[in-house]
# Entry
Amino acid sequence: MIINNKKFRISFLYLLLLIVVGIFVFRLAQLQIVQGDQYADLAQNKMVQKIINPAPRGEILSADGERLAKNRIGYSVELIYANMEDGKRNTVLLELYQLLEENEEEFADDFPIVIENNAFAFTFDREEREWKKENEIPQEATAAEAIALLRDRYNVKEEVNNQVAIEAIENVHLDSTLPIRITEGDAVYTFRTNERSWKESYGFQEEELDFSPEQSFEKIRESFQIDESYSDEEARNIMVFRQLIKDQGFRSWEPVEIVEDIDLKTVLEIDSRIHTLPGISVKAKPIREYPYGSMASHILGYMGKVGEADVEEGYQMNSVKGISGIESAFEEYLKGQDGESLTVTDYLGRPQDDEYNEETNEAIPGSDLYLTIDLKLQQAAEKALKEQLDAIQKPGNAPNAESGAAVVMDVNTGAVLAMASYPAYDPNLFATGISTEDWNRLNVTVDDPLYPRPLFNNATLTALQPGSTFKPFMSIAGLEEGAITRSSTIYCGGVHSVFTQFSCLGRHGNETVVDAIRDSCNVFFYETGYRLGVDKLEEYARRFGLGQRTGLEISESRGYLATRTDKKQVWTYSLSDYIRYTIGITGIGTIINDEGEEQQVYQSYAIAKEVFEEVDESYSGYGEVYRKVAEIMEEHNVKETTYLHRITDYVLAGRWVATDTINASIGQGGNSMTPIQLASYISTLVNGGKRYEAHLVDHVVDYQGNTIYKNESNLLEEMDFDQRNVDAIKEGMRQVTTRSTGAYAFRGFDHANIGVGGKTGTAQYGGDRVDNTAWFVSFAPFDEPEIAVVSMIVQGRTSSNAVPVARQIMDAYFGLGDYSQEKEIEADLSEDEETQGIQNNQNELIGE
Ligand SMILES: [Zn+2]
# Structure
């Protein structure tokens, strides 16, 4: 039924597109002269041209059939230089400029000379002034002085040369490119090299390279024969388009796109002036549209202009492709295949229908994608996350909580039913090429992983310590391995009996696993981890997919697992940075990777890896390790004792110790996980041990209605847990939502008929500067779980701040509360109860 409807819709859209293309075909762009002879024979005013009929891109639909990404018809203005009459080009360009300006159409202005208060100025100078101001560099500073200042500011060691210093500052401190380059030993601003290459592109001679903005302007004005009848402003407007033509790799017979997605009113005006605008044409083409704006933006992704490499692979110039998210991951399915036809036209590009018109290739529309995402649930998840962030961003609560995520997963298939990340962005901004202003606003390059970044998918890319949400995992590993039993107890006297530096937030006395989950008793889980040992812990974590990608179709971070292997890996990276940026060993080296193949890496990384492999745990004691380090480093000509001592420190710090196991047992230490990973882990736990590949795309249907891709819910791991063990953990998690840290947010939930289990987690990010991460993992219904819901708030301070997000999502899924059809009027809580609840929540600190 759905498929039939869609088939109709596709053909309708396709037909509409063809009709519109038909209307404007006499000014169609993407024209290429197939027969050069005929081009030369312009006197006859006839030529055969190849016309590209763009294929409509496939749509992206939610599981319930709502269109999340579709196409609409847009119009762009194109210009074919060869079709413009000699001597009239400037008039035409100026007329077009004025027409577009009057109609308030926005187009790129990259001409680098501007007229401000009747004076000419280079934008290069303006950019230099602004960069210096933003970076607190004195305006008069030379490039060499600027580097010296930055080296000092970022504490770059003296022995490092300027080239390495620039790389270090860019990669380590700024995460962006410095406008300074080293050329033949001298530091120069790229503003200056850009000015120079721009002048060279206009044929400036050596002695003209220091021309002022005004001199440069006059020279270019002359070369384009823009005579004195034009004012300076008018001359500049003409140059804006001249620059655009130059930038697009101008060849006289290829169309240059001047402006995209103009109003219909502008289209009609250009149409009415076609005789005074030879060479200018309007092209109809499908433009991506996201009817729900920023909703699900991190899932859908965004589009961007194709690059030169794409054109070589068969994309049309000026076309777009998926850059991120599903738009990128399923590009091959979505893009379809453009059609072509050959048409005889006159010199204005008007087809002569009576003569020759042959369609050589029909356009094949792209295929439609059906996501596993449920529109209503997605909306509810985004609303819940946003509302909670707004509610807690207050002094005394969580003033720095500005980003977060929520994931809903089908525990029996791995299908993602909703995935929210905040802040979000509107992918419509990218549909026709994003403006620099919008890009700078969205593409945050602040040197801080916790800074809210709209383009960043927190649900799949933000990996943080899971804190106590790790405890149900510890429980199943401990129970299955016999380190603990369902009835055995561990005594909590406030600290661990052997490693007394590890404490609990309470003195819980004798606790069973159910009690320990409910009370989030640290001592219970320290002891469980201690009995299990790091190797068993690692084995279970791997089988649960922790510290690994879940297999989602869009990009995700694998996070880190606190294991011997990962700890060594982390310290190998750190040592590599030290060798590269402090010792100053750059260049490329080779390693043998895990697959036994040679792989090119930074030389510093190759050395770091060698050090960690050679100096294994058979070398014990500082002296023994130091001597081996010295022996290895001598081969790389590093003999300074300061360096050797520091490398020895790295090697020792990278070794696994018993306290690492204790720390890892409550989800601290080297553990960092993404929300999607935790959703997958909870699903695996409550379904009895089946780990499914996480996925967002259910199936793909081509334009003829055939299903050409279907996700079969891949089973990645099957552990077959003892159901009684799973039930005990579920019971502990139920008590969290009825009697403990989750109870306040779940008051009034249908505990009797639906039932819910959860676990809160508050995790330190490191340092006092940053507030704790708030986590909540949960599942429902209790008896036969269908969904796992995970919420995470970066700098949410306390886990109770994450619980209400999951509660609202559960309500939406089960049609309760605000989401109930016949909304029940809930009795207001009395003030006493409210205060009581808040106090309960504030008892929870790190580890609970
Ligand atoms: Zn305890």
